[in-house]
Amino acid sequence: MIGVKRKGLEKALQFPCEKSGDQRLTPSAFFFGYSLFGFLRVRITHFFTGRLSSFLGNAESYDKKIYEFFLTLRFVIPVYLLYYRFNMPENETPILQVKELRKSYGDVSVLKGVGFDVEEGDLVSIIGPSGCGKSTLLRCLNALEIMDSGTISVAGVTLRRSEGEARVDPRFHNLAHELRQRVGMVFQQFNLFPNKSILENVMLAPLVVKEEPREVAEENALRQLEKVGLGGFAKRFPAQLSGGQQQRAAIARALAMNPKVMLYDEPTSALDPMLVDEVLAVMKALDAEGMTQIVVTHEIRFARDASDYIIYMEQGEIVELSDEDEIFTNPKDERTRRFLHRFL
Ligand SMILES: Nc1ncnc2c1ncn2[C@@H]1O[C@H](COP(=O)(O)OP(=O)(O)O)[C@@H](O)[C@H]1O
Ligand SMILES: [Mg+2]
After folding, report:
1. Could you tell me which residues come within 8 angstroms of residue 319 by beta carbon, excluding any fewer than 6 positions away?
2. For ligand 1, atom 3, which residue shows the shortest CA distance?
3. Out of 80-94, 96-110, 148-162, 164-178, which region has the weakest mean confidence (pLDDT)?
4. What values do phi and psi take at 164, rounded to 5?
5. Whole-model pTM?
6. Which mutation among 136, 142, 312 tests ligand 1's pocket best, with the greatest number of atoms within 8 A of CB?
7. Is the four-CA dihedral 165, 166, 169, 172 of positive or negative sign?
8. Picking from 129-133, 166-170, 254-258, 333-337, which range would have the lowest pLDDT averaged per residue?
9. Neighbours of ion ligand 2 (CB under 5 A)
10. CA–centroid distance, residue 267 to ligand 2 (Å)
11. What's the CA-to-centroid distance between 127 and ligand 2, angstroms?
């Protein structure tokens, strides 16, 4: 079919290649050279032969120059496109995007249109007074709680609901399930199963949700426990561990699902002060590895040292979002100033 077409075209346009003895026409030549050339040739030849040939000399040879020019383009354009493709700026879509997120319980509006982006590898701290909606925000991000309206995107999965949408359709539930697989969550109260060893705790979700083979799940679980410094504690039960160790086991459990983003809801609030640092150290190590993390915390010093930026929330709204130390030294909003005053 194409052959026939090509023959027809060649004939119609009388490509100079035929004259120069090059009978074969490759597809790339056809698309990058001849099609353009053929089109222009008809026009340009008409123009030149009609008006300019007399003083430009042989129109045929001029034709050939134009043809050679397009022949060069045939190589230059793909090379340029390749160059452009590989020198494009990094994919800058944030790994997590939240837009106009709203959530109410009955008449109480808990999140009043929250929005922010998190770039891959960032550590973001969320601070704010008790009851301002921090936990609700994290629970919505993990689809443990279904937002009333707004958009949440995590690593390519987007949940969207519009205002007044009464029913949650099955598609939303499927997407929520997808999203949960990309998000690891760590709670204040560890929430480990007390009747299982920490190894079994860490293996459980990969076995059940991902249906990983037992050996694979176990190997991965041991690797995660190693990572949080509990390599030698795999067979212990939660009750045989300190709070700090239990929380680190909970982090390993979340990591075992290979999440794209980790969420922590006051991960150190239930710990003795002595044990706080070992948990924060794990989060810092994960940050160094490039894990994306969002931490609701009262550890202002940690937030200040370790975060890429800080979100200050009050009454269901983001009051201030800052990637500079400025939020501590010179907060823009009076409410932030009042809150941080107690810590500094
Ligand atoms: N399941 C729920 N039902 C009703 N009200 C809730 C529920 N969860 C949270 N709230 C209310 O939402 C507000 C924000 O709670 P929360 O997100 O836990 O705040 P924070 O974590 O910042 O302390 C609080 O006033 C709380 O009482
Ligand atoms: Mg909370």
Report:
1. 128, 312, 313, 333, 335, 336
2. 105
3. 80-94
4. 80, 5
5. 0.75
6. 136
7. positive
8. 166-170
9. 135
10. 10
11. 10
Ligand whose nearest atom lies closest to the CA of 315: 1
Please check whether residue 176 is in contact with residue 159, taking contact to mean a CB–CB distance below 8 angstroms.
yes
Separation between Cα atoms, residue 100 and residue 102, nearest integer Å: 6
Do the beta carbons of residue 124 and residue 310 sit within 8 Å?
yes
Tell me the residue type at 152. I
Ligand 1, CB within 6 Å, residue ranges: 105, 110, 130-136
Report the phi/psi class of residue 191: left, alpha or beta, with left for phi > 0 and alpha for psi in -120 to 50. Answer: left
pLDDT band at 125 (very low <50, low <70, confident <90, very high): very high
By most ligand atoms within 8 Å of CB, the mutation choice from 101, 102, 104, 105 for ligand 1 is: 105
Q: Measured in angstroms, how far is the CA atom of residue 110 from the centroid of ligand 1? A: 7
Residue 12 sits at φ, ψ, to 5 deg, of -60, -40
> d(Cα 216, Cα 236) in Å, to the nearest integer?
20
Q: Which of 104, 135, 263, 311 to mutate to test the pocket of ligand 1 (most atoms within 8 A of CB)?
A: 135
The model's pLDDT over 2-28, given as tens digits with 9 standing for 90+, comes to 444 445 545 544 444 444 444 455 555
